[in-house]
Amino acid sequence: MGDIKGRADALMACSTKLASFYEKAAEFIEALSSLDVNKIVEITDGGFRLIEELVALMAQNAPKELLMDITEALKPIDTWISLTKSAWSAIRKVPTMPVYYDASPYAKAWASLGVANTTSRLWLKLLLIASLISMALGYWSGSAVREGVGERPTRIVRAVEVIRALEFMAPMPEPLIISGVPPSVDEEKARNLRAAEEMAEELKAKYMGKWVAISGGELIAVADSFKELAERMRGKIIKEKAVVMKVGEHKPGRVVKEWWSGLL
Amino acid sequence: MVERAPLKRCWNYAGERDVRPYPVMEFILRNPVAERELLIRARVDTGFSGELILTHDQWEKLRLETAVLPERGVLWTITSPLFTERVNVLLTIPELELELQVVAERLLRFIEERALVGRGVLNKLFLELRGPEKRCCVFRGGSTE
What we know:
The structure holds two protein chains of two kinds. By secondary structure, chain A is mostly helical. Helix content of chain A is 64%, strand content 8%. Chain A contains seven helices and four strands. In chain A, strands 2-1-3 form a three-stranded antiparallel β-sheet. Chain B is mainly beta. Chain B has helices at residues 56-61, 119-122; strands at residues 7-12, 24-31, 36-44, 52-53, 68-76, 81-93, 98-107, 115-117, 126-130, 135-140. Chain B has a six-stranded mixed β-barrel with strand order 2-3-8-4-7-6. A three-stranded antiparallel β-sheet of chain B has the order 1-10-9, with no helix packed on it. The relative contact order of chain B is 0.27. Chains A and B meet through helix 4, helix 6, helix 7, strand 3 and strand 4 of A and strand 5 and strand 6 of B. Strand 4 of chain A pairs parallel with strand 5 of chain B, so a sheet runs across the interface.
């Protein structure tokens, strides 16, 4: 009787840990929508921790006679975790990489999207691992109910086959995200974009709701409407380049998200 | 009181030699900063959530570098995100006595060969797609009903 209770407790502890992992996965989806790199990295770290704890908990508590049966099924997990972990350690360096070209809004957005893209693929891998563990827990649970009269884990073995096939859909992310030649950036444009970012707070304090123009790295015109601003800018634009915005509505450095399903 | 008849402008579908013809709209785009304007023929694309995508050529002709926004756009597609540059422009359809201030975009690392008008603009218009006649019509001043 005590044995059954102990087994149920261990099973419950594993299930709770698995549930925490799925909660973390939900947090990850939320962080993705905000493209907040720090949050994405922090949550992915948490996801990793939970999966490792879960595997350790299972190895520690699963009944020995079952361990023999499910060990085979769980074999890929260790390999997957170690491979995924090495990719993750490379990916998590990206947010701290020095930005090596000068157009901050573009560079920052590029890095965030790179991290979002690769961590999503990494989470696919983690979710595959979790689904394998979930299958093993199901078998363990069924077996516990039958007090050890378990059946051969045919379903787990089949699940492993399916998951291995699915692996093609979730290849290991490339360790390096930012690669290739950085896009060429016009110096004058970069200067105006930088100035807009630097002046953002001051503009908000002085000209909230107004239209402003920045050229040559300086504020050249302020107006109540876009059309009026256009008139005031004439003759003041340096090297044919200027940044125009409505203070409060357009935010320097922001990335505006849109969908283009027409490209499908 | 005399009720004003709705204004209407129609355009023939384009792309006869494409897989299937598609609706297009024509309008004048104006950059008030550089005092440039251009007649644009754009494909109607309800799959694009933004307002307007221009080709690099149109962007240059309108000298839109004189008024770029300090923010970037990212268009999410099924395969990858595409970055864009954004700018405010004035869109006019003279026959409809219509002028809209819209955000035009161009893709930063890819070449788009056609201009597209998206839901950001389409949702401000009464639009009628007369498929069998291969005509796209826009109304202003009241719906067709």
